[in-house]
Amino acid sequence: MPKWVMPKTLGRIFSKTFFLFICASLLSIALGLVIVNIFQPGAGINFVPHDVGAVAAVKSEPFTLKVFISHAVPTSIVDAMARNEILQIVVFSIFLGCSLAAIGEKADPIVKVLDSLVHVMLKLTGYVMLFAPLTVFAAISGLIAERGLGVMVSAGIFMGEFYLTLGMLWAILIGLSTMIVGPCIARLTKSILEPALLAFTTSSSEAAFPGTLDKLEKFGVSSKNCQLRSAYRLLL
Questions:
Q1: pTM for this prediction
Q2: I want to staple 195 with a disulfide (CB 3.0 to 4.6 A). Which of 1, 14, 142, 211 is the partner?
Q3: Segments making up each domain of the chain, as ranges
Q4: Between the CA of residue 114 and those of 17, 31, 96, 100, 223, what are the distances in Å?
Q5: What is the pLDDT of residues 117-149, one digit of tens each?
Q6: In Å, how far are 9, 118, 132, 137, 176 from 216, measured between CA atoms?
C-alpha cells in the first residue's frame, strides 16, 4: 500500500487540515461580523428578482438529520455528478478511496487511471477558465444595460468593502503564519498570488484549484499531499 494512503498519514493530514480550517473559519467569521456592523455592506443595493412570485413560491425542506443523511448518500454517482451534488460525490469518493486502499496493490491500475483523470480534469478546468474574463464582461454589460450605470456605484462600494475585508483577513492570516512558520510564508504567498486573484475575481475556489496545485507543487509540496488536503478542504 502506498505510504500516502496509510491511515496514519491520512489521519495526520486530516487533523492538521481540520484544525487550520476551524481556526481560519472562526477568524473569518469574527472579522466579518465586525465589518458588517461597521459598514453594513449591500445596504444601498436593491436587486429585485424578475419573478417575485416564483421566488416566494419556493419552499425549503426542513433540515433534519434524516434529510441530511438521505441527501448525503447518492442514488448514483453519475446522477450526483450531473446535478453537481458535491456532498454526494465526496461521500462516494471516500468509500471508493477506502475500498481501493483496502485491496492494496491490486488497486494500483485504478489509482493510476484516477490520478491521470485528475490531471486531465484540472487541465480542462484551466482551459474553461480562460473564458472567465469574457463571461465577467458579459455579465457586467448585461447588468449595466438592464439597470443603468448607477448600479455600478453601489456595487463598486460593496465590492470595495468586500476586498478590504479580504485584504484584512489575508494580512492577519499571513502575519500569524509568519510568526508560526517563518519567513518562507512570504515566498509561498507570492507564488500563489495568481490563483488567489483568480479565486477572488471569479468568487470560486474551484476555478483556481488547478493553478493552486501547480504552484504548491513547484513550491515543494508533494502532489499527493496537495490532493489530500484539497479533498479534506472540500469535505469540510
A1: 0.58
A2: 211
A3: 62-103, 107-147
A4: 23, 39, 11, 11, 14
A5: 878 887 887 788 788 788 878 888 887 888 777
A6: 19, 16, 23, 30, 20
